[in-house]
Write a structure and sequence with these properties.
By secondary structure, the protein is α/β, with parallel strands linked by helices. Helices cover about 25% and strands about 30% of the residues. Strands 1, 2, 3, 4, 5 and 11 form a six-stranded mixed beta sheet that branches.
Length: about 300
């Protein structure tokens, strides 16, 4: 397997900045790809060890392009996550004034994060989506658009000027990125972990989603993301992307996954990995009755009842 990480490029994306926070990147070749799909396909094809892509932001929720790529195709697994605070700069060619801007570009996920700013400062500018924020900066450099919303750090890379900085509609906006590789044994639990799965219902009936969520709720497992995605099988056919607190080696999580595997048409395990919002070792509170010790004690009690030793 090549010692390289694919990432959503070109150079100068927020994805690259977040990726470089991982210590192991010092020993990896970092290869930019034009899209999330092409970066993940590089892993599937064995051209890269892993891919680093955005999966969620605090303004719009799950990034559907990434979720859909993980839902479909050859299975992949998440091994790490990184949180990055996001603010945008308006990058222009030197000499451009705000009144000169008629077209702006950025990745589609950026639009909801700067929409109000644009309404106030560039009410007549036309928005064009780009493959990434850095690619939008490249297109501004080439003269295709007048301005791009991107990280201020991308200005020097593309010979542009930051006309405005610190642009954001929501305070403390963050984007979550994940390191994705081929399926293998999950890393050992840290005590502050997250498990990601995709669930397909066996059939459509009243309370179907409640039944799925009940497997987590009855075991005291908190959900951190719940997003439906169309399966492509017709209107009303959805699967559910879920992030939940805990690790597959935790008894409560393992039993929840077994319950889901029993009642669902299909369950795709996307990995158990350390949470980026909690320091390892600072485990979140576990509800009474759902610790591994309590699950083991309950199993022992059942065994004693079966043996007539109660």
């Amino acid at each position: 397997m090549p010692a390289s990480y694919a990432y959503l490029g070109p150079e100068g994306t927020f994805t690259e900045v977040a990726l470089r926070t991982l210590p192991e990147t010092a020993t990896r070749e970092l290869v930019p790809y034009v899209s999330v799909q092409s970066a993940l396909d590089a892993v599937r094809a064995g051209e890269a060890e892993a891919a680093f892509v955005p999966i969620e932001n605090s303004v719009e929720g799950g990034i559907t392009t990434t979720l859909d790529e993980l839902v479909a195709g050859e299975p992949l697994m998440i091994y790490r996550e990184v949180l990055l605070s996001i603010t945008f700069a308006l990058l222009v060619r030197p000499g451009t004034k705000l009144t000169d801007i008629k077209t702006v570009s950025a990745h589609p996920a950026a639009q909801p994060q700067v929409r109000n700013w644009m309404r106030t400062h560039l009410p007549d500018a036309h928005w064009e989506s780009a493959a990434s924020n850095a690619d939008a900066a490249r297109l501004v450099q080439e003269g295709r658009y007048d301005a791009a919303f991107a990280g201020e750090f991308a200005a020097a890379r593309y010979g542009l000027t930051a006309l405005e900085t610190g642009i954001h509609d929501a305070e403390n906006a963050q984007t979550r990125f994940v390191l994705v590789g081929r399926p293998a044994r999950p890393a050992a639990p840290t005590g502050a972990d997250k498990t990601s799965v995709v669930l397909w219902q066996r059939d459509d009936h009243p309370g179907a989603l409640r039944d799925l969520l009940g497997e987590f709720a009855s075991r005291g497992i908190n959900l951190m993301l719940l997003q439906s995605r169309p399966t492509g099988a017709g209107i009303g056919n959805y699967c559910f992307c879920i992030d939940a607190e805990g690790h597959i080696s935790d008894r409560r999580m393992a039993e929840a996954l077994m319950g889901l595997r029993r009642i669902c048409l299909q369950v795709r395990f996307l990995g158990s990995y350390p949470r980026a919002d909690i320091t390892p070792g600072e485990a979140p509170a576990i509800r009474a009755g759902t610790s591994d010790g309590e699950f083991m004690a309950a199993a022992d009690w059942v065994a004693r009842c079966q043996d007539g030793r109660f």
